[in-house]
Amino acid sequence: MEPLRAVSFRVSRCRLLAAAAIVLIPALAWGQELKGEGQVLGGDALAVGGARFQLWGIDAPEANQPCFIDGVGWECGAAAARKLAELASLGPLTCVPRADPDRTRRALRFAWCRNGAGDDLALEMVKSGLVYALRAQTMDYAAAEDAARAARLGMFRGVSMPPWEFRDAPRN
């Protein structure tokens, strides 16, 4: 019969190794391309292969953020999430993690993603007029936003506040 101390040490070591694996395996995988079905978490947020992230280069309206067309409010954040779900449903997603140079956003994970049809999800979202190009992060989508504005698509049919301003605005 083994001494109780040896059994206890082995169990503790196994628990420690299991906990380390849970923490380290996703961290190691984060530096690699992620492939799989996507779960939409918002107008600019997805989960793929257990990793949650924001789409690189865009910022969607918040779920509770109002947008207006001819003075009538509409749920532009929900519309953005529906459009992203439509795009994500076109086959498995392939996502490549991207590092953000801005220290204030480094707590978030960002990735560039395409769907099974080969569409750049962020570009398609910007072209729909349902998200803003995050020009402070990249200029990759600025021309597409300018075109959506000129065509008065999505949020640009009326009045909307950039999401970063809405998040920073004081609440009553």
Overview of the molecule:
There is one protein chain. The chain has 172 residues and is α+β, with helices and mostly antiparallel strands. The chain has two domains: 1-30; 32-168, OB fold (Dihydrolipoamide Acetyltransferase, E2P), CATH 2.40.50. It is built from five helices and ten strands. It has helices spanning 4-30, 76-88, 121-127, 142-150, 163-168, and strands at residues 34-36, 38-40, 45-48, 51-55, 58-59, 67-69, 72-74, 93-98, 110-114, 132-133. Strands 1-8-9-4-3-2 form a six-stranded mixed sheet. Strands 5-10 form a two-stranded antiparallel ribbon. The protein has a two-stranded antiparallel ribbon with strand order 6-7. The radius of gyration is 21 Å and the shape is globular. It starts with a helix and ends with a helix.
